Amino acid sequence: MSNIDTGGPAYLTVSVPGVTLRDWFAGQAMPAVHSTYFENASTLKEMCSQRGLSPSMVVATMSYVIADAMIAEKMRHEGRK
Predict the structure, then answer these.
(1) Most buried pick, 20, 26, 59, 67, via CB within 10 A?
(2) Which helix (DSSP H) or strand (DSSP E) does residue 21 occupy?
(3) Helix, strand, coil percentages for the chain (3-state, nearest 5)
(4) Distance between CA atoms of 44 and 55, rounded to whole angstroms?
(5) Using CA atoms, how far apart are residues 64 and 25, in angstroms rounded to an integer?
(6) pTM of this prediction?
(7) 68 and 22 in contact (C-beta within 8 Å)?
């Protein structure tokens, strides 16, 4: 995972060690991912059983998938990819 573009620091004016833009985007996406999957518990259970993951891991993974897409779109918009 070291080749994933994290988007750099999340906070430009305040130094928060360890928090990247990717982490911040994932944290922002997590409530929506959580509510979406828990509104349809059967979908979440199916995803968990297919992948051998806990519900928390599915929510975290999907949050980072969204964060990666947000960074890719940000870079595209800025002309960097």
Answers:
(1) 67
(2) helix 21-39
(3) 65, 0, 30
(4) 7
(5) 8
(6) 0.71
(7) yes
d(CA 55, CA 60): 9
The confidence score (pLDDT) of residue 26 equals 96
Chain position carrying tokens 């918009």:
77
Q: Please, which pLDDT band fits residue 11 given cuts at 50, 70 and 90?
A: low
Burial class (CB in 10 A: 0-12, 13-18, 19+), 58: buried
The one-letter amino acid code at 80 reads: R
Both structure tokens of 2: 């070291």
Given a contact cutoff of 8 angstroms between Cβ atoms, the answer to whether 10 and 23 are in contact is: yes
Query: Per residue in 18-72, pLDDT tens?
Result: 788 899 999 999 999 888 877 777 877 887 888 888 888 888 999 999 999 999 9
CA end-to-end distance (rounded Å), the chain: 19
* Cα Rg of the chain (Å, integer): 15
